[in-house]
Design a protein that fits this description.
mainly alpha, MetI-like fold, elongated
């Protein structure tokens, strides 16, 4: 089965194109000090709002800071927050979905109604409210976005758990005296892993949007560490004079979101080939 999955993925150009782009982005973010001679906060007042050149590949901002450097360092923060938030939400959401689908009754009612309450509020507004209460920091941003995305995973896992619970191998596990924990871990959890991976990829794209939006509003990690959203916020007023200050970070966000979404579609199609027909 694994060999068949690898064979399908090897023939899916979407998977490889998006995967290669994301790998290049991650490597570039990690190796930023090697790829650029500047620090993300180095200022040169003599080259403010300078256009792209051999010295500054993407130009400079209003303080003479190299935009290429700031995008690379901003990718670090954006990816750390997005990946961290999705890991938090996937772990908590999987746990909630498994418990609600397996035990039903009052456990199901409490967990799923809590998920409904979270979904009642627009994500960005609820995130803004929480960040105002907690204060801007990287960890608070990860926790806030992670908790907001828990219902996405809980609902997916809940549905799969309800289906898996009716399977004969689960009934057989009960007959031989397996504990609930063993049934959940050994019999049901493997069935929910594929939907979880797909949801993780799709959620990474929306996490990038949420992080960038909060940073744009000044609710992200505090300066001087750059993030893509803050770069756009600082550059927006100069778009008429120097459009490149806004084009490059916007393009980075758009391409990254597109890559995560297409990667999620590819994983969904290949993990469940029936969806292609």
């Amino acid at each position: 089965m694994q060999n068949d999955l690898f064979r399908r993925l090897s023939k899916d150009h979407r998977f490889w194109f998006c995967g290669v782009y994301l790998i290049i982005l991650i490597v570039a973010a990690v190796c930023a000090p090697i790829l650029t001679p500047y620090e993300y906060n180095d200022m040169d007042s003599s080259r403010r709002l300078a256009g792209p050149s051999s010295a500054h590949l993407m130009g400079t901002d209003e303080f003479g800071r190299d935009i290429f450097t700031r995008i690379l360092y901003g990718a670090r923060l954006t990816l750390i927050v997005s990946v961290g938030a999705v890991l938090v939400s996937s772990i908590l959401g999987t746990l909630c979905g498994l418990l609600a689908g397996f035990y039903r009754g009052w456990v199901e009612q409490v967990i799923m109604r809590l998920m409904d309450i979270i979904l009642c509020f627009p994500s960005i507004l609820l995130a803004m409210f929480v960040m105002i209460l907690l204060g801007p920091s990287t960890m608070n941003l990860i926790i806030t976005i992670g908790v907001l995305y828990v219902p996405r995973f809980a609902r997916v896992v809940y549905g799969v758990t309800l289906s898996a619970k009716q399977m004969e191998y689960v009934a057989a596990s009960r007959v031989v005296g397996c504990s609930d924990l063993r049934i959940l871990v050994k019999a049901i959890l493997p069935n929910v892993m594929a939907p979880i991976f797909v949801q993780m990829s799709l959620s990474l794209g929306t996490a990038v949007i949420t992080e960038s939006g909060l940073s744009f509003l000044g609710l992200g990690p505090p300066p001087p560490m750059p993030s893509w959203g803050r770069i756009i916020e600082q550059s927006a007023r100069f778009v008429r004079l120097s459009p490149w200050v806004l084009i490059w970070p916007s393009l980075a966000i758009a391409l990254t979101i597109l890559a995560f979404n297409i990667l999620g579609d590819s994983l969904r199609d290949n993990l469940d080939p029936r969806l292609r027909y």
